[in-house]
Batch of 2 targets.
Target 1
Amino acid sequence: MRAVDQEESLSGDPTNRVVRASSKPQPTSFALTALEEDRTQADACHFACGGLSLPIQPWVSYLHREDPPLNHIDFDDFASFLRTIRLHNPRGNFYAEGRRKYEQLLAYLPQIESATAKLSTKRQLVMLDAGCGRGYLSLLVYAYFTKVVGRQIRIIGIDRNPKLIKQCRIAAKELGFDQLEFYATDISMFKLDEPVDIIYSLHACDDATDQTIAKGIELKARYILSVSCCQHTNRTSMRRHPMTSVSRHSVFRERLADMVGDSMRALILEQRGYGVKVFEFATSGCTPKNVMLKAVRDTARKVDIDASVAHYERLAEAFHFRPRLQTLIEEL
Ligand SMILES: C[S@@+](CC[C@H](N)C(=O)[O-])C[C@H]1O[C@@H](n2cnc3c(N)ncnc32)[C@H](O)[C@@H]1O
């Protein structure tokens, strides 16, 4: 049983209440769909985008790549899918911000997929989307795994904005995505009584990125994927440091805060048993907030923890700064 009923969790302030998702495994009802007719790739692009063939191309290429061979996707479904998740308007064109978001999703999806390649195919995968917003990423990830790859998956999206969660639930219901659940809750207040394979976040604002990483550590997630957004708290906290000649320019102040903040998060993750890669998951044209932290548990054995601690302390001292993540994990 869920400790908090779905409707109840949509009323009032959801941010200071513990929300717990049940661990009861449920069957997946979404079967693989076959291509109705043998459409060419170009037709498929044209159809799915209402005449705009370019944006769909990366998705199509991704689905049609040869290694591993993938099942065909039903592009009728795919066009209505983009409408249902509200990236497309009813005429089949992208909403103003829809195209860029879609490109971000296409860049993010392979990172999730590569993580799942190392996980058992014999059981349901469990993923958590922290700060899911309108749920675009999870709706796409769920569609991809159930309709294209044919893997059992359960995804839980959480966001503290109840209005967005309501929209997410409507879309998931319309699509028949019955193992895709959404809860209105603060990330810090969310509890789950079963192991999580992957926790991910895309542009979780300010310290929601720290909350995501802390939740991943708390739940012992095998993978933690995080792409931060505005790091307002970090920026305003880093005032005294040796690089003020650089950070007096606001554009550099922002970049410096991003770099120092993400470096310290990566070091904390290493000290908690994760191996971490930091890289650009998408082009800066797709999003200027394009740096991903991809952490995998148990690969930090090769990491020199003493060196990691020393790096962390040096940064903390030089920038007079402790990331929120440090406080959060001390409270675990
Ligand atoms: C910029 S939006 C990104 C949404 C989505 N991940 C995407 O890429 O479309 C950030 C979301 O994080 C949510 N958020 C911020 N802090 C949060 C917290 N502490 N707990 C839960 N949600 C949070 C906001 O409500 C917002 O919907």
Target 2
Amino acid sequence: MKSFPASGLSRSLLLACVLGITPAFSAPPEDGICPIHHIKMESVSLRVVYGMPSQLEFEEMREQKSRFPNGRDYVLAGCVVKPAKSIPGYLCRDCVKARKEWIASRQTQSNSKP
Ligand SMILES: [Zn+2]
């Protein structure tokens, strides 16, 4: 891997951006059953979003694997823009609900900071 002549902060952001690509395209389960909630998921087309994920989205990526892996109606495809605008995927209604609750709790926490 090349080293970037950037400052430490922007270099780590860039690295985080590149690393953010990987989990977005993990293959959905073929039977369409949510591995967390064990219910049938809805087959949908997911928007592909390019660019740097927000801090909240990074935190969400850490949480989603164990709590709401199929709760987002878009995928983060990293910084390198490709032609794909949408990909087939699944949405689980319980994951969507769990994700909304998680985001709401995160926003409550950040609002309560001084
Ligand atoms: Zn689920």
